Amino acid sequence: MVERFLEQQPAICATLLSPEVRKGQSDLCTLNETDVSNAEDANMTGTIGDSPMIHAIKNAITTDLLKRYNGEAEKKILHTASALDPRFKGLPFLTVEEILEIYRGVTEEAASLENERTLRRTEVIDGPSAPKRKASSSSLLVSLLGRSFTDTEGTAEPKTPYAIAEEEIERYCKASSLPLTEDPLNWWRVHEITFPLLSRVSKRYLCIPGTSVSAERVFSTAGDVVTAKSSTLKPEHVDQLVFLQKNLHIPKC
Hints:
Layout: H1 2-16, H2 19-23, H3 33-40, H4 52-68, H5 72-83, H6 96-125, H7 140-149, H8 161-174, H9 184-190, H10 196-206, H11 213-225, H12 235-247
Helix pairs in contact: 5-6, 6-8, 6-10, 11-12
Protein name: Zinc finger BED domain-containing protein 1-like
Domain HAT C-terminal dimerisation: 168-248
GO molecular function: protein dimerization activity
């Protein structure tokens, strides 16, 4: 793959820089699923028949990829995102101790989010501007017969957010895994009522883009908007034009 790229690099660069090609961008061919699969299966280890240039490129790619996933914080984010993906929640690439640690962290984060949500809701209800209510005194009937006719044994104590999160984790792990061809976001939308605490945590991790391609495309769009002829555009106008370019889809007649 690298050898073919080096052979065709001058022709590719000249073609992409051609004004005629840039005018007809809709006619350009894009990578299909087969091309992506072949690129993912590319062997980046050095072989005997590689030229010095190809060997150096493979080493540079391998070194860069290894450098990106060595941090403990990055690994924790990736493992947590995999645990919250119903397709990979089994985490077969980790040990049993590591799996328990990841799900323990998910439980703590889900309980923490629920505690913060409850605190915000309490602050809204009992805000500083709300008038303080006087505690109502118990009635004479309750004070006389309350002990005899109040069922205190059958009243269950409310569960803590951590206990609720543990129950959701247990039910989530026992549920059947999602096929690889299905969309995990649709799965969470359907099961949001069943796993209310876990669904909030999943939104924090599954919204992270896997690549920076979308961000790079936005920068390319901004470069097409801010040209030499339109260099006096205000920043807010540039933001509006880029937003419209990326989100306004006009159907072809």
